[in-house]
Specification:
Layout (H helix, E strand, L loop, with lengths): L1 H7 L4 H6 L24 H6 L8 H4 L9 E4 L2 E2 L4 H10 L4 H16 L6 E4 L4 H7 L3 H13 L8 E3 L11 H7 L4 E3 L1 H9 L6 E9 L4 H10 L3 E10 L13
Helix pairs in contact: 6-8
The protein binds zinc ion.
Length: 249
């Protein structure tokens, strides 16, 4: 992964000249000088992050039949220092973690050969988007798309009704909370019209955290008719109940 990140993020020429004095990238986690090209991350911290093992095939069975072939990339545990960085991204307006985690997701997907034609964030309802000012999943999706050189479609999906925050609910209530919450958005028609080759190709659906999988499953179901899906999230809790059967209905 270090090699992939360095190859993809050479220091821009102006940085080569000025970086030692002014704008050298600093590591998001230890604030020391970064050594992964243009990325705000150092290789020592990258190595010591709480890496999670890959999902096995059993996890994939949690999604409803009808969604075409599915792969899941969730590279990290929701544990220090990932949890604090994701909270900063989601609640405190700090967008720097999106670039670092987008790079990590991109590197993991590229190394796994899991390369989509289009990258789609899990949307926020417009009320919450207005309140927060940005969608953290869209920030992650854009960053991942930049690193992979793939297009991002932040409005392909739409959250058509506000839902109670998932963190306040148990797993069955989370699934009920999300029934019918996602639909194809206004941009879906344009994408399919302008890029018809995308139909029945591969999409990657991006969120920040995968807990029970209910949100991603509901969003995946809305996207399911468009093509095969990869599910990407930055992290999952160590106590995640994701391996138990999860269906959005
Ligand atoms: Zn560091």
């Amino acid at each position: 992964m270090i090699g992939w990140l360095r190859a993809r993020s050479p220091l821009r020429p102006v940085w080569r000249i000025w970086s030692k004095w002014l704008i050298a990238p600093r590591c998001l986690f230890c604030n020391q000088a970064a050594d992964l090209g243009d990325l705000d991350l150092c290789s020592d911290c990258l190595i010591s992050l709480p890496w999670a093992e890959s999902f096995n095939g059993e996890s994939i069975a949690v999604f409803r039949a009808g969604i075409k072939s599915l792969s899941i990339q969730v590279p990290l545990w929701y544990a220090p220092p990932i949890d604090a960085a994701l909270r900063d991204l989601k609640f405190h307006g700090d967008l720097a973690p999106a670039r670092v985690f987008g790079a990590v997701l991109a590197a993991r997907a590229a190394i796994a050969g899991d390369l989509p034609d289009l990258i789609v964030p899990v949307p926020l309802h417009r009320g919450r988007l207005h309140e927060r000012g940005y969608n953290q999943a869209a920030q992650l999706a854009r960053s991942t798309a930049d690193w992979l050189g793939r297009p991002c479609a932040p409005r392909l999906l739409e959250r058509r009704r506000a839902t109670v925050p998932q963190t306040s609910l148990d797993a069955p209530a989370r699934r009920r909370n999300l029934v019918g919450a996602f639909v194809l958005g206004a941009d879906a028609g344009r994408w399919l019209r302008d890029r018809p080759a995308l139909a029945f190709r591969r999409l990657a659906l991006v969120d920040d955290v995968l807990t029970t999988g209910a949100t991603l499953a509901a969003a995946a179901e809305a996207l399911g008719s468009l093509g095969s899906l990869s599910i990407w999230a930055v992290a999952r809790p160590m106590s995640s109940s994701f391996t138990s059967p999860v269906t959005p209905g």
